[in-house]
Design brief:
By secondary structure, the chain is of the alpha+beta class. It is built from five helices and eleven strands.
Length: about 210
């Protein structure tokens, strides 16, 4: 399939029932069990899984967050953040945060669907991932206060079973413990784990690159 066919296939699949927790749990690394119900005071957040072509191959945009002492400090993640009171929808949140963090305007992104939401206890956030597509490689303008740098990750390589591993990680929010974290090992300096890995696992299952 060419890139447009891949996107259309993914868009169709996103309109059907999602694998949800079954896919997310393949890459889950939890310090504590999830609550049976999402807390009423959980903050709503949204992220953008942005796909775009580079040399006729689909790539996924990821960011390396700054080291600022917050719960997800220094981690590799999708652009995104908390919903503002003036955001009319969570999709607007995802588009706004993407523009604020990496400078991609909303009119450059085609929203093709959304993945399953994911509750993250450490930040008490209920995160809604949106899947976007840009026809061309976007020009980036990084917000240095939030983002160290971006990563352009070819989907085919990311979904190679050979890069999946389990790493012992000490989360910045829990410096007193070490957890076994299922991870996408991009290289020794770039380990994708936690909530982002769980979201990618669902995207991987939907795109069915196996």
């Amino acid at each position: 399939m060419d890139i447009r066919q891949q996107i259309e296939s993914l868009q169709t699949r996103l309109q059907q029932p999602l694998p949800g927790v079954a896919a997310q749990n393949k890459m889950a690394s939890r310090v504590r069990a999830l609550p049976l119900q999402i807390p009423e005071d959980a903050r709503q957040s949204a992220v953008m899984a942005l796909l775009y072509p580079v040399q006729h191959e689909l790539n996924l945009l990821l960011i390396k967050r700054v080291e600022d002492g917050k719960p997800h400090s220094g981690q590799i993640s999708f652009p995104g953040g908390r919903r503002d009171p003036e955001d009319e929808s969570l999709q607007i949140t995802a588009l706004r945060e993407t523009y604020e963090e990496v400078g991609i305007r909303a009119d450059k992104i085609e929203i093709i669907g959304s993945l399953s939401s994911l509750y993250i206890p450490v930040s008490n956030s209920n995160v809604f991932p949106f899947v976007g597509f840009a026809d061309n490689k976007p020009e980036l303008n990084i917000c240095a206060d939030e983002v160290q740098y971006t990563m352009e990750v070819p989907i085919k390589k990311l979904f190679d079973p050979g890069i999946k591993t389990v790493r012992h990680i000490t989360p910045s929010a829990f410096p007193e413990i070490t957890i076994e974290a299922p991870s996408y090992l991009w290289d020794e300096d770039h380990i994708i784990w936690g909530a982002t890995a769980m979201m990618i696992a669902e995207l991987e299952e939907l795109m069915n690159f196996r």
